[in-house]
């Protein structure tokens, strides 16, 4: 039995116990470093930095933005698009069979 108070003896371990196998050598377990290139942040970190007042302000801005989006007019179809839609509907009526729901009633 080892006496833990006197300290452990030098233990020599085999290499298979202390090193990764060759297939796992390059899986990113190396030393961590800072970014090498300064660039724009791709993540929104405002969750960590916003105060409650900032969150309320952003929420109000989003709600106001949604209200203005609803007031925007629906884009109008061009004359050419309207003509094409009319031709398609005429074609569907004239050359397609009635649906199975209509036939069974």
Label this structure with key terms.
GPAM1-like; 105 residues; DUF3752; GPALPP motifs-containing protein 1; elongated; single chain; mainly alpha
Rg result: 35 Å
Number of strands: 0
The secondary-structure class comes to: mainly alpha
Distance, first to last CA: 91 Å
Strand content: under 5%
- Major sheet details: none
Number of domains as seen in the coordinates = 1
Uncertain runs? none
Outline: elongated
Mean pLDDT: 78
Order of helices and strands: HHHHH
How would you describe this structure to a colleague?
With 105 residues, the chain is mostly helical. Helices cover 47% and strands 0% of the residues. The protein has one domain. The protein has five helices and no strands. This is GPALPP motifs-containing protein 1. InterPro entries: DUF3752 (IPR022226), GPAM1-like (IPR046331).
Annotate the secondary structure layout.
Elements (H helix, E strand, L loop, with lengths): L14 H4 L27 H4 L2 H20 L7 H17 L4 H4 L2
Give a quick summary of the entry.
The chain is 47% helix and 0% strand. The protein contains 5 helices and no strands.
């Amino acid at each position: 039995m080892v006496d833990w108070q006197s300290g452990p003896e030098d233990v020599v371990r085999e290499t298979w116990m202390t090193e990764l196998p060759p297939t796992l050598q390059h899986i990113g377990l190396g030393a961590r470093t800072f970014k090498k290139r300064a660039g724009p942040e791709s993540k929104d970190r405002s969750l960590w930095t916003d105060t409650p007042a900032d969150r309320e302000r952003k929420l109000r801005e989003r709600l106001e933005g949604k209200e203005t989006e609803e007031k925007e007019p629906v884009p109008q179809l061009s004359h050419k698009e309207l003509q094409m839609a009319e031709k398609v509907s005429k074609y569907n009526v004239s050359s397609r069979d009635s649906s199975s729901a209509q036939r069974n009633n």
